[in-house]
What does this fold into?
Amino acid sequence: MTVLVAGWFLCDAASRPVRDSGVRVEDGRIVQTGTREELLATGDADIIDRPDCILLPGFVNGHVHLYGTLAHGIPMSSAPSGFWSFLQDYWWPRIENRLDHDMIEAATDYVCAEMLRTGTTSFFDILEAPGTLPDGLQVEKAVAERRGIRGVVTFEACERIDRDNGQLGLAENGNLIEASRPTDLIQGAMSIHTTFTCSPGFIQSAFEIAADKGVVCHAHVNEGVHEGKWCEDNLGKRTLEHYRDLGVAGPGFLASQCVQMTAVELDIIAETGIRVTHMPLSNCEVGGGIAPIPELLGTGTTIGLGTDGYVNDMFEVMRSTFLIHKARLLDPGAMPAHDVLHMATAGAADAIGIEGAGRLDIGSHADLQLVDATFPTPVEEHNLLEQLVLWRNGSHVRDVMVAGRWRVTDGELVDTDIDQLLAATRHQSKRLWAGS
Ligand SMILES: [Zn+2]
It folds into this structure.
């Protein structure tokens, strides 16, 4: 058993921070919470006491494309003129269609290490790389489990190549779900691309497989203005009206992005219980807009934050979430720190369907982080969450545990040669870029 005590303990974003407290870990789970005195009285030999740190749940990155890191800085002859051009002229031909197993193996290993180093203990990955079928997901699962991080890996099935490739994508997800044992760190789920790359029958089959296997079905929804307009022009209705009419809107639907939404679409989310993930930084990158997340939070929607494979430090995503909605709504009281931290932890875990993650109450996974708390101003109960959200970044993460195993200690990744991971990823980036 291991006892962890810190200067401050935060069980979850909705709980009151408490001084000089922590947790006791056994078999990868939290078995006790309490004060320093209570926990030290257990007599356990393995004691970690960090009076200068905040102990809090590890982050849950609700939406990442692990391979995305290979495209950071790729040469572009001209900037895309909009979201459709971004996909059609850049992302599909120059990145996703060129990915192979060696590329995703290197990117998965490096990004999992990068996420752990900056306090992320769980993730939901979406791989769209038609050339990696079959078994691209098996490559990701093996690498991520070796790295010791928890997560869900999915293949973003669609019919943009052809119908057969679409079926291979559905089977890729189904096979990984079947092959995973409940105790595995990495699990599967279902994922499809969008309404403009998936036919109605294809969408319904994906949701049927997901419901049958008890997992969520993810889709990108209205990441910019393109999809909603495409649906209006081709179907005479908006994107989420289409999903509703296909009979698949409900809690089993994980809708990422949700940027350009009509009032009717927001009502569909609220009324059916669709879960949402929010990626403010990548929405800026593609010129998509700012998603109406405070409005959705007000309806009780389950929402998680994600990096989208762009800037993979969840502190940066939290800070942008905290700020961008205040600017959009002209309201400094919008998007308080506790809502932001909730979406980066338990909210994301609930959205992507990992039970017992994103919180440190008894019975939860021992997925946690210790963050340096030596701020230039006092840390108090009333300001601790804002201190974390606004004034910390990944370099302040001291220790990270996943499933009761230390993955980062004193700011260093355990059992990891980061230089070797960087070199391998750089090599695979050059291979990808050579075709561009
Ligand atoms: Zn995405």
Observations:
- The radius of gyration is 21 Å.
- The chain has a mean pLDDT of 96.
- The first strand starts at residue 2 and ends at 9.
- The chain has two domains: 2-57+368-402, 59-352.
